[in-house]
Amino acid sequence: MTTFEDILEEAGKFGRCQMRIVSIFCLVSVPFSFVYVGIVFQGFTPEHWCRDPGVIEIRERCGWSLQDAHRATVSLMNSSTGVTYSQCQKLDMDWNATGLTCDNPESELTQAQLSTLPMTGCTDGWEYDYEGRQSFVTEFDLVCADAWYVDMFQAALSVGFLVGSITIGYLADKYGRMKSFLMTNFFIGVTGILVATSPNYIALLVFRVLFGFGVKGGWMVGYVLITELVGVEYRRMVGVTYQLFFSLGILILPLLAYFIPNWRWLQVVFTIPYFCFLTYYWFIPESPRWLLSQNKRNEAMEITKAIAKENKKTLSKIIETLTDENTDSISTASFMDLFKTSKLRKFTFILSFNWFTSAVVYQGLIMRLGILGGNVYVDFLISGIVELPAAFLILLTIERIGRRLPFAAANIVAGAACLITAFIPDSMFWLKSAVACVGRLGITMAFEMVVFVNTELYPTIIRNLGVSVCSTLCDIGGIVAPFLLYRLAVIWLELPLIIFGALAFVAGGLVLLLPETKGVPLPETIDDIEYKCNRFTLKEPVSLVLQLCQTLLLKGPVLQSLASRHLPGYF
């Protein structure tokens, strides 16, 4: 019986064909990053204050700038970020009766005088210090009492992620990777245009959910497909490279947002690539692993031969015995399979929690850039540059150390950085920024690693479903993150960092309970999970390790007896 891993030895584990497919699929990560964190620009909340017709009349008559009128007619108030100009209330007075002149607006009324005057709500809407630009916040006036609607915009995307990743993951395991990918991208293109043309905010949220339904699932299908096409020693490189393009998208996003000042046109730019991905129908084959898991041996053989031909390799007759290890019946993925054994239950819980933590901390740190003040485009670009070393650190460490320890360390470093940043005073700006960048680097590493560790731990028959179900906790984290950040920041700007740090510490500790997957062939069946992961769990007592070391010096049946008792399936 010959497995697909055996055939890859002859066809090429990472030849020209796989390089072409991986290169093409990496482009899927770029617009995914736009969608994932585009709220920083699409939903940017600029400096704002109550619109007052009386002030507008004086400003136009005197030729004042928006800032001059703002300083002269808006009172100061205390907030979580310090003393700021009032954003949700205006002075209840007749400005024509104040005797305010045009000569020197800043000297007419002092802040002490303004603070004693009665206040009222923003009955005439708001003015924004965002000239020449428009976010959906400024278009729909989502500030003050309606500010939580901005949280809903990101939460709606994550709701779509949540439902879509499970649904599309199931469809990909049942009907094929490429069929699901192509149908998903057409759906994304249509709903993305609907988001850009939404007539009101309710319609925007509905279309945003549908948009998110396709985006996450399509990205995960692409990840699983390219992982299944390469040999075991190339999985790490392929997975990290796939996510490296996500970080490249993060670098491109602020440039797009700077030159495209309207959030609707920015949404169109986010959507166009998904129509382009429909051309993959002519360039990308179905996953032979999936075809074998569905007992479609002939199709798997044809695709495998095509891969070998493009790689300029010659297959021996061994391909005639190509089969799946579980050929008794055509298997279909089931949600309950993820909890079928004790090891699968442990994997599912730990990976789900890490997906949740990565989403909350990663999104939280990025969205936090939009509420800190300063130049959001420059700050976002710098924070994006910080992500790039993450991919290279992963490649450097997982080849020499493995997956588990770097994965755990990345979470713990991110947690420590978040906690330290929260207590560094604002006066130490550069130190605070540097520590925050370390946290961003750590959580980026953790986020990138959870994807391919998740892929490596599940067998082929439930791999796509396993990744999709575990990543639903990422989507739940995406729902929680904006509320956690924006609402807690109103109480204390650094409070969300305390929560982020605690979550990351717990996630790092749980990772240490996972098995190591470095150099281990992708499991094909659930039985593989029970046997092939045994040698890497933390449950083996120290006495067993010592026993094995001593036995390595012996010969004959002693080694065989001990190994077969403790490591079934390997000796």
UniProtKB/TrEMBL annotation:
Is Phosphoprotein a UniProt keyword of this protein?
no
Q: Where is it localised?
A: Apical cell membrane; Basolateral cell membrane; Mitochondrion membrane; Nucleus outer membrane
The record's section on InterPro entries has: MFS_dom, MFS_sugar_transport-like, MFS_trans_sf, Orgcat_transp/SVOP, Sugar_transporter_CS
Transmembrane segments annotated in the record for this chain: 21-44, 152-172, 181-199, 205-226, 238-259, 265-284, 347-371, 377-398, 405-424, 430-453, 465-485, 491-514
Instruction: Please state every residue range assigned to the domain named Major facilitator superfamily (MFS) profile.
Output: 110-519
Q: Which Pfam families match?
A: Sugar_tr
Keywords, ordered alphabetically: Cell membrane, Glycoprotein, Ion transport, Membrane, Mitochondrion, Nucleus, Transmembrane, Transmembrane helix, Transport
Q: How does it sit in the membrane?
A: Multi-pass membrane protein
Gene Ontology CC:
apical plasma membrane; basolateral plasma membrane; mitochondrial membrane; nuclear outer membrane
Q: Catalytic activity, per the record?
A: dopamine(out) = dopamine(in); tyramine(in) = tyramine(out); agmatine(out) = agmatine(in); (R)-salsolinol(in) = (R)-salsolinol(out)
Claim: Transport is one of the keywords in the record: yes
**Family per record:** Belongs to the major facilitator (TC 2.A.1) superfamily. Organic cation transporter (TC 2.A.1.19) family.
- The name this protein carries in UniProt is Solute carrier family 22 member 3
**Organism of this sequence:** Sinocyclocheilus rhinocerous
